[in-house]
Amino acid sequence: MPQEIWLSGVDGDIALRLPDPDEEALPGVPWGRADELMTPAYWKGQCWQAERLGWHGTFRLGADLREEVAACMLGGWGMPAELGLAAFRRLRDRGLLRGPTSAHVLEAALSEPLVIGNTRRRYRFPRQRAAHLSGCLSALEMLREPEGDREVRDALIVLPGVGWKTASWVVRNHRASSAVAIIDVHVVRAGVVAGVFDPAWTPERNYRELEQAFLDLADAMGVRAALLDAVIWEQMRRFGNLAIEAAICVAAARAIAPAVALAARRRHGRTRGAIGRRAA
């Protein structure tokens, strides 16, 4: 039976119709219930509401490609989003992102405490990020931005300290692109729970497979990949330990299922053999 989600607004009540929970969004991936966390139907409903309410209207953090690279690099692996944004704003506001800047100057700026809310915090890895960012700012002086989104990502991946995730993040933000996906830990957990990702896949070894599966899901759901990525990232952060535990449980269940099935087949085979011998 089809499902419905209702949203009340200034224009009155509107509804989104979704397929039956058992209908497949992708081969082997059912839509699931819209009121069950982390199913494809749930994410479709969340994206629909986000669009209707005007959330995630823009993804840009910087005014140009140079600033976007800096923002995404400073907020990359191992860095809380709030801390990365605070570091980016400091460098931008001091005019250190307008052109090539030495690693020494960048490191000095990143080493000063940052004010996050009412607390003072230290930026992590100031020397490493300063060296990478300095190299990027120099290289970007010579970069002529390609036309295609994926071609831009290919050009960014070769920059110092830029990997698949950071390059994809820059392209998604800078171009509001749905041709790439930002595969981070939050998206991986959500994909595992929804049944879209193989639990054995990791961004380090399987980025292309993860990205394609994510883009296929977005297409099947009729949702912009850029929006789906943003909605999942935001909500999975809020879910916290719930998201982690759900992903672990699903991964464990899928790892156990083949072993259970194999044991059942073996038992079945022994039983048939015993019956055959007795009948003979």
Structure explained in plain terms:
The protein is mainly alpha-helical and 280 residues long. It is 59% helix and 9% strand. It contains eleven helices and six strands. The strands form three sheets. It has a two-stranded antiparallel ribbon. Strands 3-4 form a two-stranded antiparallel ribbon. A hairpin with a 2-residue loop joins strand 1 (3-9) and strand 2 (12-18). Helix 2 packs across helix 3 and helix 2 crosses helix 7. The radius of gyration is 23 Å and the shape is elongated.
β-sheet strand percentage:
5-15%
Low-confidence stretches: 257-266, 270-280
Mean pLDDT: 88
- The shape is elongated
Largest sheet: 2 strands, antiparallel
Q: What is Rg?
A: 23 Å
- Discrete helix count: 11
Q: What topology, given as strand order, has the largest sheet?
A: 1-2
The total beta strand count reads 6
**Order of helices and strands, N to C?**
EEEEHHHHEEHHHHHHH
- Class of secondary structure makeup: mainly alpha
